[in-house]
Specification:
Layout (H helix, E strand, L loop, with lengths): L1 H10 L9 H9 L1 H19 L7 H21 L2 H17 L4 H10 L4 H22 L1 H17 L1
Helix pairs in contact: 2-3, 4-5, 5-7
The structure holds zinc ion.
Zinc ion binds next to helix 1 and helix 3.
Length: about 160
Amino acid sequence: MKCDNIIKEFLLRDDYNTRPLRIHTHILFCGRCRREIGMLTDIFNSFRNTHPLPMNNDMADSIMQKIYENIQPAVQTTSPFSWIAAWIIIMSGIFLLPFNDQFLWLTKYFGINLQIPVIIVMGFTITIYSIVIIATHMKDIKKFESALKNFLKHH
Ligand SMILES: [Zn+2]
């Protein structure tokens, strides 16, 4: 329960690169939160670094909040289905983005050229997320691979 509060507090911050003492001391002793916060910080930073324009914080936060909501149960149960569900949510987020009010406002403000860099950033995010899924499910993938090889051998 305490871990959930720490992650929530981290996600509510404006600057993900500085952490209050409460989070600092917690992740010093909690490997799970340390990995999760580290991973989220990397995603946030890559998100901002690849974007040619200053990122709208609210938009990034709402996307990350959706990702977080789906990562949380996945970390606890490590069910591949919740990872896939999160992946589908991110993908639909990418396709629904052009219909987002905030995005439409940004497009009006910066011109139509914004659409292309945003799509690139979203592509980058989904790539990172896919890598995370694959990296954390190496065992399942190997199991599937050997099962497939067995199947092909006998058929
Ligand atoms: Zn923790």
